[in-house]
Amino acid sequence: MHDQILLRRYKVYRKKSDTCKKYFASRIIGVNSKLRIAHFYQMVCQRPAGRARDIADWLIGNNLTVAATKRFGGYKELLSVGRVQTPTLALVVEREKEILNHTKSKFWRIMAGFTTVNGDVFEAEYIEGKITKLEDAEKKLSECGNADGIVAEVNTKHKSESAPLLFNATQLQIAANKKFGWDSDKTTKVMQDLYEHKLMTYPRTSSEHLTEAMMSEVSVTIGKLINMPEYSKYAIPKDRLQCFSKTAGQM
Hints:
This protein has ten helices and four strands; from the N terminus they run αααααββαααααββ. It is mostly helical. It has a two-stranded antiparallel ribbon with strand order 1-2.
């Protein structure tokens, strides 16, 4: 009798699909009703793809998580298994194995310098790229000798490249480690010292952008940097400075 009432009401509420789930959820009374209504909703309200995901989550996620934990976790460590996370983790592991087991192999490139009739000098690489055998590289090099080359085709491409974003704290620590061999503690201390002397904006941030509220602070910082010889040679003269706005473009 209860199921018949649900079915009749379902025909009314099914016209609004987003209402269907809310309605059945509001009819949950007790554990048995919850399981029965949830199953009924899945059968009549969900699309096949959603239903398939629910089944996969139950079969793979719920059951294999319990099985793996009991078998390999020894009841002390939870081993989570999922229809998405486990295959993804497998891809990561396989890629890591490839990286660890990779063996470097030698190869050779043939490079040549050319001078045009106008006196322009440029360098070019042999069209076949990497050559895995030394004898093959020497053979091709001897075939070229000092012969004159002919430019068969010239391709010109124009592309725009955006200016790099500002450093955040983590990126600056990584860059300092690569360039100077500093650890994160030393980089943090240097950043703090620069900040206290107004030679750097606030360092402890994950943002790569400056807000409009920081304009006065940035002006002071840039003014101090421009007075330092190692930076002043890269500075743009004040009469050539341009202001930009996100909304209005160039002003």
